[in-house]
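Let us walk through a complete example step by step. Step one is to write down the protein sequence. Step two is to encode the small molecule, NAP, as a SMILES string so that its atoms and bonds are unambiguous. Step three, shown after the inputs, is the structure prediction itself.
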Amino acid sequence: MKTIIIDGRAIANEIREELSHTTSDLIAKNIIPRMAVLHIGEDPSSLSYTKSIKKISSKLNIEVDIYTIEENTNDVHVIKEIKRLNDDKKIHGILIQEPIPSSFNREDILLSISPFKDIDCMNPINLGRVMRGEFPFAPSTPLGVLKVLEQENIDVEEKHVVIVGRSTIVGKPLANLLLIKGKGGNATVTVCHSKTRNLPFFTKMADVVVVAVGRPKLIKGDMLQHGAVVIDVGINDVIDKDGKHRLVGDVDFDSVIGIASYVTPVPGGVGPVTTLMLLSNLITAATRKV
Ligand SMILES: NC(=O)c1ccc[n+]([C@@H]2O[C@H](COP(=O)([O-])OP(=O)(O)OC[C@H]3O[C@@H](n4cnc5c(N)ncnc54)[C@H](OP(=O)(O)O)[C@@H]3O)[C@@H](O)[C@H]2O)c1
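Step three: the predicted structure of the complex.
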């Protein structure tokens, strides 16, 4: 079987092109889409994600304001800062970068983000709305997965989608989005996790496997049925034989070639699309103000 390697960067470019029309319309109305990214502490990988958000945003004339709050402060200070951003009419979206250090009350912090500015669906109120199928914003990574499927004309209706990973930011919201009664949904969904007994039993039944675990090479070709679509959300920094750092997914890429009908590579698969979905949510938020 020929395996199509999905080009996430090309999909991201197409989305960027579409979004550029909306941003131009907004700018013509004197609305500059603007987001605030808040870091609590200085986690290197989230700082580098913010850097890439800023780079892509600049191509769309989106403004990104970065705030770094020192780790030795408290919840009251962080929530006060978020409330200030909630009230700032020039700011359309707020992103709190993870990880939020464990000394902070994560729940209180996320609940303080205005649901109308919560562009990565971190506020539990918005997450609950995703479960109901009614939401202003869904989290960007599950949206990225759905966008990849849509762009490749892979319809999940009547299909069995097996999601490996049940995190609150990827697996669970994705399951709810795939269950929506309507376009892009109507799938039959199984969610697996670390306590799933006999993972291959489930993955072998899947028409579509989405993996969001954070374990390099967890999913191998012999765990799939022929023709399965494989979407790899995982991003793992591994050190290869030459001592060099390399990003790999959760799928043993070489072993699924010839078995899967489609596969997303890492890097260059879901990741670039995810960032554009975040910006798409921001533009939705900015459009709301028109
Ligand atoms: N491409 C993107 O834009 C993007 C965005 C976000 C995250 N990611 C990547 O996606 C991966 C997952 O992120 P996350 O935040 O969802 O991770 P997470 O919160 O750590 O959740 C991982 C999930 O995988 C499950 N799991 C762990 N080991 C397993 C195993 N051996 N078999 C089956 N399930 C297993 C865990 O099960 P339990 O619940 O039982 O512990 C958990 O549900 C990471 O590599 C992350 O870097 C990528």
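Step four is interpretation. The pocket of NAP is lined by residues 141, 144, 164-167, 169-171, 192-196, 199, 212-215, 218, 233-236, 270-271, 274 (CB under 6 Å).
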